Amino acid sequence: MRVTIYGTVTRLGRMVIAVGRSAEVKSYGFPWNCRKNVPTKLAMLDRKLFSTLVKRPALLFSLVPGVKIAHCAKEVLDGKWPQRPKSTLDDVLRTADMHYEHNEMRELYDFLKDFNDSSEPELVWRLARATYELAKASAKEDEKKRLIYAAFALSEKALKLDEGNFACHKWFAILLDEMAKYEGVKYRLQRSPEVKQHFERSIELNPRDPTSHHCLGYWYVWILEESS
Fold first, then answer.
1. Least buried of 52, 128, 208, 228, by fewest C-beta within 10 Å?
2. DSSP code of 78?
3. What share of the chain is helix, strand, coil (3-state, %, to 5)?
4. 78 C-beta neighbours (distance < 10 Å), count
């Protein structure tokens, strides 16, 4: 650990000294007018390492005498310096859709699972879809069933969050039917009008979505086969 700290701090210390030669050095011996450039390099260092240095500044000073950057590191951790902008909802959705388009379902699920408690419907229905895709890929029947029920619960949540979202209706209908398969044919038939209703609502909200049309057509074929 000491060797790692020494190497990292030495590199950072050299950077500070080099910049300080042409900059006005104020309190803590740090070049004040280079604050805009340094955070980018500070961000490349491990935050845990900075936490250690902030808690044990004497260690830092003993390793790099005269380069007092512990205070600056603390400012970075406290958010007083410019930080990398946080990911916006659009960024998250864009990344999720990229994984889906590239058929990276495990990566998609791992990316979205941290949003399980989110109240953003666009995230919740995407997590429901990712969970369903994971269920389809599972070779274990018990795991597949568990994932299907989990996906259905997420689709219910998404629909409650936004009943004006076509995708929430579409995935609720898909996952209601998938869940109903585990409850038996009678139960599936009982819930089938509800499935149809949500597919129709999805099409009403977004007539250009091909999946909703396809699923509704499949629903009619299944009902015809069951009634014959």
1. 228
2. T
3. 75, 0, 25
4. 9
β-partners of residue 25 are 31
pTM, full prediction: 0.64
Q: Name 51's Cβ contacts closer than 8 Å, sequence gap at least 6.
A: 77
For 95, other C-beta atoms within 10 Å of its C-beta total: 15
Torsion sign (Cα): 98, 200, 171, 140:
negative
15 C-beta neighbours (distance < 10 Å), count: 17
Rounded CA separation 150/188 (Å): 18
Tokens of 19: 């910049």
How far is it, in rounded angstroms, from Cα 44 to Cα 76?
A: 12
Per-residue pLDDT of the chain (228 residues; tens, 9 = 90+): 444 554 555 555 555 444 444 443 333 333 333 444 444 444 444 455 555 555 555 555 454 444 445 555 555 556 555 555 566 899 999 999 999 999 999 999 999 999 999 999 999 999 999 999 999 999 999 999 999 999 999 999 999 999 999 999 999 999 999 999 999 999 999 999 999 999 999 999 999 999 999 999 999 999 999 887
CB 15 within 8 A of CB 34: no
Cα angle 199, 205, 208; round to 5: 85
Non-local CB neighbours of 170 within 8 Å, separated by 6+ positions = 198, 199, 202, 209, 211, 212, 215
Give CA angle at 205 (99, 100), nearest 5°: 5
